[in-house]
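Hi P.,

Sorry for the delay on this. The queue was packed all week, but I finally got your sequence through. Input first:
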Amino acid sequence: MKHDDELHALIGAYALDALTGDEHDRFTRHLRDCEACRTELPGYLDTAGRLATAVAHTPPEHLKEAVLQRIDWVRRLPPRVPEPVAPTGVFALARGKAWGFGIAAGIAAAAVLGGITVWEGRQAEQVQQQALRLDSRTRDLSAIITASDARTVRGAFATGASATLVTSRERGRAVVIADRLPPPPQGRTYQLWFSDGVTMRPAGLLDHSGAVLLTGDIGAATAVGVTLEPAGGSPLPTGSPLLLLDLPA
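Then the structure:
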């Protein structure tokens, strides 16, 4: 039987519906008796929902067009019928000629379809690579929010947008999940920073919404800030933070 503190550490996995069997049952019973877990769980569920939205990926429009075009080329399989008796005489000769024309037509069709197959293969490879990148990103983000020591801090921008900071001191990593953050002005970008007291170091760029795994180790940082910088980012902040979230101890 896990101790209460060990069960409490499973709250992130529970929010992601990643617990199964006896472990899920034990945490469910623990949740009924643990006021701290019941208080924290809505925040984890909200973070998990934002994470799912952040990594969602809409298939590219050209893929839909490729499928629709492909429909015109794909033939339905014919019904299965008994093998006909081999003809003889003139019928065999006629069938032989027809079979030869069929081979020629088949070769021509194969050449056309081969080109399409190569093109589709490249499209499929691109989609697969995108999926692999997303899958890796999802694992990295999930590893932080399900860490046994994961802690969550929330804050709001002056615009009304919000940000959730999830940290794991054991892993030395942090995730920021932004919600309803408007697109930055033309030629500008949102940039994340680790605040080490009097200095700040770059920690990645933030889209107008979604989740970002901060670049670098938390180290001695005491807070995470968000600033508006020139497109591509800046080595040092050029303005005051739009939001500063204190890192949990």
